[in-house]
Amino acid sequence: MAILELQNVSFLYSNLTIVQEQDLSFESGEIVSIMGPSGCGKSTVLRLLAGLEKPSSGKYFFNGELLERPSTELRFSFQDFDAFPWKTVNENLLFSGATTDSGESTFNINELIGKIGLNNHEHKFPSELSGGMRKRLALGRCLAGKPKVILLDEPFSSLDVDARQEMYNLLQLLWMEWNCLFVIVTHDIHEAIILSQRIILSKALPFRKKNEIKVPFKYPRDNSVIDTPEYRSLIYETRTSQ
User: Fold this and answer.
1) In this structure, which topology does domain 4-73+147-241 adopt according to CATH?
2) Which residue ranges make up each domain of the chain?
3) Burial of residue 117 (number of CB atoms within 10 Å: 0-12, 13-18, 19+)
4) What is the pTM of this model?
5) pLDDT one-digit tens code per residue, 67-114
């Protein structure tokens, strides 16, 4: 059964249709990318999946139940926000983390800091971190809540090529260990192929699923896939489907 499901969902803003009659479903433990032209409504779909926007029509289900409000089991990482600037790495993770009824953390913060590669940086503020480190912190903030779903909006667009590849490697390792659903909005075809099992392609506004491409490579993936005929075929199929 799908963990996330949009059924005939439309979303209007000031009488402008942003998302039109969409049926989308996502299984637990997948990595799925959403691509399409700029301004086609991709980020709005992500906000609908997060429960941050309500459909104008249609229904949205999380874990088989109608979602009426944002759930703590869904975590959203905004494109232009990595962390609270007035909090240290430690404080950001603790603030974002799941807690017991008595307020105690349900995760080992030192273990999480190690997994996201921020050892010896836990007392630094975001302004003292590199761009790649801030993205690691953003992923850590999502994982600290022990969610079933992580939604990422253009998460690595501000990074250089080397830093992006480091984040691709990290995300795959974390996904293989945590086995939660990742849904990623991206403009980068290579990023979508390296990370995803499925790529959902939209037409121009309003958002309408035009095609879906399945990516066959086994995890973990690295740049060695670039030299394969399958990769070149996926690049061509993705470009010609947009």
Assistant:
1) Rossmann fold (3.40.50)
2) 4-73+147-241, 80-146
3) middle
4) 0.93
5) 888 888 999 998 877 789 999 999 999 888 755 455 566 668 888 899
